[in-house]
Each structure stands twice: as C-alpha cells, then as structure tokens.
C-alpha cells in the first residue's frame, strides 16, 4: 500500500474560518478563497506585469507616508518598503495568482498584493510566512488604505507605465512607414476612391499618409494619458477618507509621484472620483481609435499586395509562411490579418469597458476588474501587433515598379490633370474615347489639337501628377465647341 505524504502547509484564518495554505506560497487565505471563487479567465493578474508593479508602488508609497505621519512604526514600514521594491524590480510576480476577472471590485487583487508583500517582508525580517501577529497584511501593509482607492490608483499607474512601451512601438512603426515613404517617393501609381481608379499619386505619398495617421494617434493617446493621472488615493472606502490620517492623502501622493515619476494629482472630489470611471472609458476609446486605424492600414496593405497575378499587385509583402495546405506556392498576408483581428478584439474590449463604466452604482464601480483586464489586454496585444507589423511586414515591403508604371501609363485618370487646360467636358469625352479605344490619353489630347506634345508632357510629368510640383499657371480653357464628343473616332 502506497502512502502519500501531504505537502507542507500552514494554517491561516480569516473571518470565515481557517484554510491550509501551501507552505511555500507568499499569498495567503484571502488569495486562496479568490482562487476557489473565480476560476474564470484562468489568467492571473501577473500576466500584466505593470499592474503588479503599480500595486507594489502604491504599497510602497503608503508605507512611506504612514511612517512619515506616524501611524506605522519605522521598522515595519521599512520592511514593507523593501518588500515592495523587490516586486517593483520584477521579483515574486508568480505569486500574484488571482484571476484578472473577479468579483469584489478588486478586493482579491488588493489582498493578493497585501499578502505577498507582507510575507516577503516577514522573510526579510527573518520570520516565517504567515506570522501576521508581527506584520499584518491588513493592519500594516494595507494601513490607511482601501481596495477602493488602492485598486483604481494602481490600474491608472499601471496603464500609464504600460502606455509608454506602446507609444515606443507606435513611434517605431510610424518611422518604418516614413522610411518606406522616402524609398517610394518617386514611384508613381494610380490612386483609388471607392475602389475605382482616381488620379495619380506616388506610393511614397500613400505610405507617408500611413505614417501621419499613426503620428496623430500618438498625440491622442498622449493627451488621454493625462486623464489617468488623477487618482483617489486617500479616499479609502467611498471617498470620505475614513480610517486615514488627515495628512495621509497629501503625503502618499507625494511619495507615489516620486516612486512612479508620473505627474499624478489627487482628485478634487474624492467621493466622485471613487465612483466615477469615465477616465478609463476615454482612454479605452483612444486605444480603439488607434486600433481601427491600424486595421484600416492593414486592409490597404492587403489590397495593394493582392494577387500576385489576378489582384492589384502594386506592392509585395514579405513572405512569412506557406499560405495553403492545398494550393502550392500560395502566400497570404498573415501579418496584416492578425493586426486586423487584434483591432476587432480591441473594439470589443472598448464596448466591455463602456458597459462596465455604465454599470457602476452609487459610491463605487464594482466592475473595475473587467475594465482593467480589457484595457491592459488591448495595450498588450496592440503593442505586440505593432511590433510584428513593423518587423515582419512593413520593413520588408517592396514596390512592384514596372506594374505600377504600366498602370499609370494606361490610366485615363491622368486626364484630370489636363482639365484646367482643356475643360471638363473635353476631358470627359477624351476619357470615354480612351476607354473604348484603349489608346493613350496623351496621344488623344495632342491629336485633337487641344494641347501640344510639350504642354501635355509637362502637365503629365510625375511631379505634376502627384502634386509634388504645383501648377503655377493655367493655359486658356478650350471652349466646349472645340471639345470632341464621346462618339468621335479619334
């Protein structure tokens, strides 16, 4: 008969009773109950490293403020401070195990942080984990705090930290499009509106447009980031500051600003800021804007590279993998496709945030966990999507110059450039004739006696067609009486 030895455990007790906690765990009974209650996402909060770091920053700031105003002795405050710093530095993140989606308005996340930091601090003091008579997760690590001010503050700090890496990737992608704009500055092509041939432009102008729109998103995201700088730390349960020293709010803000390097400020109305989550909705909306515009760019890249024989085929994307299990040689635009899907997810997450913000009741919004998860996931996925788009797609795009030159040469859209000189009616008639006959539009204009060959060549030069060189003077417009009709055999 085989005997199984029970894994080492310690006993912890809360108001509901006692539980066995793995001896090697830094988390405690409150975390253990959350693990039982919320087996929903199967994703621990540690997947968002900046949220864990932000929680530790808040605990560190609170310890320093509590020591400064005299409500926590220097020895315990120093231990909490040191333990928090270890988490900020990236250690013990695997101990932040509660699910990202949870009931309780974030209480489980706050208690997970309290327990882990407390038990790290106990070890630093040479004491066993769970020795809460000496250092308590609630009485000491959570002193002057409530989940209701710790959790939203940590979310805002974490998102602010996470945003920095997103902005770095966004700017790198913008620069990648700018490099391509320079590379393709002299590649003339036919522009399109409503998927129909329009007037000429350069491929460089098209890629410069992509870079510009991403630069605008960089500005919008930066502007909306400031909405996250208003925090309610010191509000405690509902904004009245109950259980906190009158000097605590100012002290903890000062320390948190120093720790985070962020220009944080305490909300003017702590009751309002504890119940209101509008800043998250605005920030989420700016992420959605960026995601949708990235998706539109990805759509354009897929269209421009369609083919290679029966599509537009204007550009070639780097071949990243075999595209079919049945069609040999097929290569698909898999990188833009995955960016599209990330954008769809971000749009859905934004709706989730919107509903969660609306669902708040009275003095608290209980749905901040799903708000946090939605926005952190959006930032994480967008950062990764932008990187793969840049590294595995944009940097390797090439222009199919011969195909583009041929399409411009055969395009009747170039006649638009001649309308200031021959008039709209004549241009329209010539365009119709060119389509019917398949002949070059420039030849038809010269044959009709509307412009000389030199004048036509000047106006149909790549620089003029793309608008890079402005038309400085107009020739007299030919009267309608001289315009060929659509039935003329030119």
From TrEMBL:
<dbReference type="Pfam" id="PF10415">
    <property type="entry name" value="FumaraseC_C"/>
</dbReference>
<feature type="domain" description="Fumarase C C-terminal">
    <location>
        <begin position="415"/>
        <end position="465"/>
    </location>
</feature>
<dbReference type="InterPro" id="IPR018951">
    <property type="entry name" value="Fumarase_C_C"/>
</dbReference>
<dbReference type="InterPro" id="IPR022761">
    <property type="entry name" value="Fumarate_lyase_N"/>
</dbReference>
<dbReference type="GO" id="GO:0006099">
    <property type="term" value="P:tricarboxylic acid cycle"/>
</dbReference>
<dbReference type="InterPro" id="IPR024083">
    <property type="entry name" value="Fumarase/histidase_N"/>
</dbReference>
<dbReference type="Pfam" id="PF00206">
    <property type="entry name" value="Lyase_1"/>
</dbReference>
<dbReference type="InterPro" id="IPR020557">
    <property type="entry name" value="Fumarate_lyase_CS"/>
</dbReference>
<feature type="domain" description="Fumarate lyase N-terminal">
    <location>
        <begin position="17"/>
        <end position="348"/>
    </location>
</feature>
<dbReference type="InterPro" id="IPR008948">
    <property type="entry name" value="L-Aspartase-like"/>
</dbReference>
<keyword id="KW-0456">Lyase</keyword>
<dbReference type="GO" id="GO:0005829">
    <property type="term" value="C:cytosol"/>
</dbReference>
<dbReference type="GO" id="GO:0008797">
    <property type="term" value="F:aspartate ammonia-lyase activity"/>
</dbReference>
<protein>
    <submittedName>
        <fullName>Aspartate ammonia-lyase</fullName>
    </submittedName>
</protein>
<dbReference type="InterPro" id="IPR051546">
    <property type="entry name" value="Aspartate_Ammonia-Lyase"/>
</dbReference>
<dbReference type="GO" id="GO:0006531">
    <property type="term" value="P:aspartate metabolic process"/>
</dbReference>
<dbReference type="InterPro" id="IPR000362">
    <property type="entry name" value="Fumarate_lyase_fam"/>
</dbReference>
